[in-house]
Design a protein that fits this description.
The structure is a homodimer of 545-residue chains. The first copy, chain A, is an alpha/beta fold and 545 residues long. The first copy, chain A, folds into two domains: 264 residues, Carbon-nitrogen hydrolase (Nitrilase/N-carbamoyl-D-aminoacid amidohydrolase), CATH 3.60.110; 195 residues, Rossmann fold, CATH 3.40.50. Chain A is built from 19 helices and 19 strands. In chain A, the strands form four sheets. Chain A has a six-stranded mixed sheet with strand order 5-4-3-2-1-14. In chain A, strands 6-7-8-9-12-13 form a six-stranded mixed sheet. Chain A has a five-stranded parallel sheet with strand order 17-16-15-18-19, sandwiched between helices. In chain A, helix 7 crosses helix 8, helix 8 packs parallel to helix 9 and helix 10 packs across helix 11. Chain A is elongated, with a radius of gyration of 26 Å. Chains A and B meet through helix 2, helix 7, helix 10, helix 11 and helix 17 of A and helix 2, helix 7, helix 10, helix 11 and helix 16 of B.
């Protein structure tokens, strides 16, 4: 028996596009002699469809797509994820289901039992958990279907859940398991997946075919990396990361082989590729081609410009240099060199005269008050406004260049440098931005060395340095990580050797700046805890603030 | 037996403040001879604590507060909501619990079974549902405790759930029921609560004491309106809306009375009071006093100014008039008259010269291109930037004045008029803003009549009217309501008598503007479906777009 895994890039709500993509993959798989083709979890709607699931019209369109796929399930069986309607009045209206289409009908359907409802996941918002499990027999083979999270409580190791679905379906002695997934990328999560799959095959002593989404839906990036493992716990194949692929596997060969083909996963390289894919899909799925960004000469905007040029082509990236009276000469030079290195268009728009016009109107109201935060933010907002003027005029989407460290402590101007349709590096701490810059320059100097080595500065007043108001980034980032990712208490963080006053100050900065992050653009997610929909914090809260 | 209901305004994460408030209510209740005092759901942490619940330090602080309350449970029993730790490793770490504190110990604890996970609610993100139910006996009375949603599936009428918790605890024949709630306000929901409570008492034939939160946590407003009902289904008392109150009830009196004391609930009056409370608490809980807003002479900013003056005092509201070359004379006049009527400070800051400075710098880049969206948005962004300059300089929080109709169709400028810490009327359709303006003027003209009667206009180019690009608001708002609140399909909306092309155009506008609403300030929620955390939509989606 031959099983095809279709690791494809779907688009939320684009039923026609998703169907076409599946149709041609089915034709391909038939050509390659596949008996079964497997598409990922909720492939019909793409993942995550979010509140579109509450619209019965949307569900109807999904059902129609399943019907069209059923018509194609003639010479081949199709495993595909889509919502299905819960026939019982009690409980949520939908199941998150794996359909088994064959002989031009729905031969079998398995619902998901473990519904992730944490971080970016809201599945219990929409779906009723499955309570019964079974198998389907096709061409003499018994197959256990499962959906994503349902393989993640193997041996009841996951404290989140009380049941282990495959412990039930395995009672029917399936020949192999198919798992269809939509498992988002995070750089620290990539190897967990292999461990989990290995554990399942060792426990159930049958091969497992795991197919994952690839591609980004706004901020959530799916890496692909689909896996075929056999009953010995060997990883027979791991499909590429960040790329579409259709591949056909022979069940006997998988079962009899002892090969282990695991891909090397380097953190920074994966992050780079994830962000490029995230950018590409954001533009592609919205139907836009061209980006714009403010290039300051600093490291954040430099890294974003490189990523954008890689994702969209340098021709589609327009860089705007927005110097003020506080900008250093080297900033403009560094920015210009970078734009030239990339081959991207750049323009210089000085903000001094506009700043002067603002201050003239404000003079009567601000008279006698010293230069301060208002004047600093004003410069950032003039820049944000100019960038949006270009964006509106020429149809370029503005890229946000904030990093995770500054977003965390509120070191950024709302409606100024926090502007943008998409935050490209908002899930990277400043120290990780440096790592990424060095990775970019690994073969030759694309980002000017001076951009990487000079002390970070917002350049909003004379001789300003980030270190005037923030601790060194290597200390700041470690404290932030312990609080944001590890959710440690102030006391626990102090006990790791950090100054108690500093810890209190940093954690307070994080918590009182929730109002800013609420209005931040969506952030391409590459870590286990990104700002945005996966981190839901009160704004008027009084904890550590 | 005397039962006190403490309908109080708590503050998320403010354990010290919440404890003090409870302590003085307990002293009061003891003075009034109460045997039991009841505080709302999650009163210790305030509702909703959101992802703070994931911090074990936060849970520890909550547990300490429960301990301190236990010490006070000497002459009186205390019913209070707080998270409790799930002792079993499987399942979520916490329960959403009602503690019964008496004799200086935790005499009993009931966990919530029905965990709302829809709209603004994320309870299954944090809590394990209860599976067993019981009662507690105190001073010879048997009491069934329950938490909020657990009374909302009476007779299994609610299709969301599969169990009815009180059907279980009633088997122990309690003398009465206590329900502690955090049930958010929406103008269409206020009477549902009475119906539900009535149904419960008629089904179980015992009195029910229902205590609700009052006050706002950022966008979510709790109205109070706590209820005492008896075994005949009579509403013995309904506590005030939008006000704190401690009130002691005699069980015998409740049981033997046939009075029905239901408060009148007028939609627009309730909305007015809800928004005032929402404003007051947003400022109060963040420790701010002063607001600023742009007064255009139009109806939206006028209504927001009135609400702000009522909530914060006219002395704390600063109005900025920001005329351009496209502003009509009457706009400035109308705005000035309103500010004077309110007794609020106002300043005029013309934007023409700043606009000129921008266009001068942009001239070389925009040369030859006609005046368009970029130039319109530029004006809005200059205004937004000026308002933020005042906000930063003087510590006034900027109020957003967008309404729900324009937020829905994207008729607003991101980083311009969409700026603000809080969207005050973002959950009111334009037609409802008119109703609110008329309500404000019911006794005398506060908002100039001209502001209400003139055709709405953004005044960003000569003779612009909203009706140039949008249908009449009475049509637009009905289409929007059917799509946003009622989640109807284009076809269903057409069948209500609307033009098919118009419906398609409007729904497309809603869906392609998700990126704007993602960066919108939190919106005070008064309807069943507000923009913000209760409506979670894909940005790169392709449905109806």
């Amino acid at each position: 028996m031959k099983i095809a895994l279709a690791q494809l890039n779907f688009h939320v709500g684009n039923f026609e596009g998703n169907f076409s993509k599946m149709k041609s993959a089915i034709a391909d798989a038939i050509k390659q002699g596949a008996d079964i083709i497997c598409f990922p979890e909720l492939a019909v709607t793409a993942y995550p469809p979010r509140d579109f699931l509450e619209f019965s019209d949307f569900i109807e369109l999904s059902n129609q797509t399943i019907k069209r796929l059923t018509e194609l399930a003639d010479d081949i069986a199709i495993v595909v994820g889509a919502p299905s309607i819960n026939p019982v009045i009690e409980g949520k209206d939908l199941y998150n289901s794996a359909y088994f289409l064959a002989e031009k009908k729905v031969l079998h359907i398995t619902h998901k039992a473990l519904l992730p409802t944490y971080d970016i996941f809201d599945e219990y918002r929409y779906f009723e958990p499955a309570t019964s499990f079974g198998t389907v027999t096709y061409k003499g083979k018994k197959i256990a279907l499962s959906v994503c999270e349902d393989i993640w409580n193997v041996g009841n190791e996951n404290p989140l859940y009380t049941i282990c679905p495959l412990d039930e379906s395995i009672k029917e002695s399936p020949d192999f398991i198919i798992n269809i997934s939509a498992s988002p990328f995070s750089f620290s999560h990539a190897d967990d997946r292999l461990d989990t799959i290995r554990k399942n095959t060792l426990r159930y002593k049958v091969p497992l075919f795991y197919v994952n989404h690839v591609g980004a839906q706004t901020e959530i990036i799916f890496a692909g990396g689909s896996v075929v493992a056999n009953q010995y716990g060997d990883i027979y194949d791991e499909m590429p990361f960040f790329k579409e692929q259709l591949k056909v596997y022979d069940l006997d060969e998988v079962s009899s082989s002892r090969q282990n083909q695991i891909r090397k996963k380097e953190k920074i390289e994966m992050i780079y590729q994830a962000l490029v894919l995230g950018l590409k899909d954001y533009f592609g799925k919205l139907g836009f081609k061209k980006a714009i960004l403010g290039l300051s000469g600093g490291i954040d905007s430099a890294v974003v410009a490189v990523l954008a040029a890689d994702a969209l082509g340098a021709d589609n990236v327009r860089c705007i240099l927005l110097p003020s009276q506080y900008s250093s000469d080297h900033s403009v030079n560094d920015a210009r060199i970078l734009a030239k290195n990339l081959g991207a268009q750049y323009d210089i728009v000085p903000i001094e005269s506009i700043y002067g016009a603002f201050m003239e109107e404000l003079d009567i109201h601000f008279r006698g008050l010293p230069f301060g935060l208002a004047e600093e933010n004003l410069q950032a907002r003039i820049r944000g406004t100019l960038l949006m003027a270009f964006s509106n005029k020429f149809g370029n989407i503005l890229l946000n260049t904030s990093n995770k460290s500054e977003a965390a402590v509120g070191y950024g101007t709302l409606y100024g440098d926090m502007n943008g349709g998409l935050s490209v590096i908002g899930d990277l701490y400043k120290t990780e931005v440096f790592e990424l810059a060095n990775y970019i320059n690994r073969n030759k100097e694309i980002i000017p060395t001076n951009t990487i080595t000079k002390p970070p500065s917002a350049e909003l007043r004379p001789d300003q340095k980030d270190s005037d108001s923030l601790p060194d980034y290597d200390i700041l980032d470690r404290i932030l990580f312990e609080y944001i990712e590890a959710q440690k208490s102030p006391k626990e963080i102090e006990e790791m050797g950090f100054d108690a006053k500093l810890v209190a100050r940093i954690l307070r900065m994080v918590n009182i700046n929730e109002f800013k992050r609420y209005q931040m653009p969506p952030v391409l997610r590459v870590s286990d805890k990104a700002f945005g929909i996966g981190r839901r914090m009160p704004i008027v809260g009084k904890y550590l603030s």
